[in-house]
Amino acid sequence: MSSGDVVLVERDAGVVSVTLNRPERKNAANGLVWQRLAETFREVAGRSSDRVMVVTGAGGAFCSGADISDPSGVGGEPGDPHIVRMRFLGEVMLALRQVPKPTIAKVRGVAAGAGISLALGCDLIVASDGARFSEIFAKRGLSLDGGSSWLLPRMVGLHRAKELAFFAEMLSAEEAAGFGLVNRVVPDAELDSFVDGWARKLAAGPPVALSMTKTLLDNSFAVSMAQALEDEARCQAVNFATADTGEAMRAFAEKREPRFEGR
Asked: What one-character-per-residue DSSP string does 233-252 give?
């Protein structure tokens, strides 16, 4: 890893920090950034030692959107049809959603367009009090992309999603919290320590159980309650067969914190 990398990846005690690193462009994501993100998300998904992923941006911004000045757009080769490029963006966002571990967006500064989609694609969003959010697409003559048409209604409801998409206004962190877009708003000076605390707590949690809980919740809008109950039963049966659940039971009896190993 070097400071010249467009995406920085750091690992510490099960926490993977993924940082968009084009601060001179407010981390606008060009084709190379999207390619690196796709590679990183798939790598994290497959590494058992990676327990939590934090996505953030360098230089005081999260991501100002796709860098439309890049000849390759969001992916592919110069001259590729727009549908080819946009499908690659879809693959990146799907790779993020398919990471079977908790993911946290740590947002400073602007998260707009594909940048807000990137944040919404994470399981949790923590914003500094100076963060700003916008589904800016309409102001650029564009419709929603990056998964926002699917994510927004599930997070804020259909009518509020339409308000955010139609007017494309810039929201403050507090306004975003009022819409239900973010989990927490904290003072900028406390953002790093707050997210680090959440990430380390999740990294110390039971990996198998957390992964299945994430899947159950992500699938909840697509299944009946009867199917959800059946899915819960299957997941719980798997949990009871793991060493981690046995460890949790012993830790409870011994009045100590459990030590989860993901097996």
From this structure: HHHHHHHHTSHHHHHHHHHH
As separate numbers, helices (DSSP H) first and strands (DSSP E) second, the chain gives 10, 9
Q: Would the pTM count as exceeding 0.90?
A: yes
**Residue 226 region by backbone torsions, left for phi larger than 0, else alpha for psi between -120 and 50, else beta:** alpha
Under 8 Å CB-to-CB from 205, ≥6 apart: which residues?
A: 51, 260
Average pLDDT for the chain? 94
Please choose, from the candidates 8, 6, 99, 19, the residue with its C-alpha nearest in 3D space to the C-alpha of residue 54: 19
**Rama region for 180: left / alpha / beta (φ>0; ψ in -120 to 50; rest):** left
What crossing angle do the helices spanning 82-97 and 31-46 adopt, rounded to 10°? Answer: 30
Q: What is the pLDDT of residue 82?
A: 84
Q: For residues 36 and 31, what is the distance between their CA atoms, to the nearest angstrom?
A: 9
Segment among 72-86, 126-140, 197-211 with least mean pLDDT: 72-86
**Quick one: average pLDDT of 150-174?**
97
Query: Would you say 232 and 220 are in contact if contact means Cβ atoms under 8 Å apart?
Result: no
Which amino acid is residue 88, in one-letter code?
Answer: F
Instruction: Tell me whether strands 171-172 and 124-128 are parallel, antiparallel or unpaired.
Output: unpaired
Q: Within 13 Å of residue 164, how many CA atoms lie on the same side as its CB?
A: 28
- Per the CB < 8 A criterion, the answer to whether 122 and 150 are in contact is no
Answer with the residue of higher pLDDT: 76 or 81: 81
| pLDDT band per the 50, 70, 90 thresholds, residue 75 | low
Question: Among the CATH numbers 3.30.1360.120, 2.60.120.10, 3.40.50.300, 3.90.226.10, which is that of 7-203?
Answer: 3.90.226.10
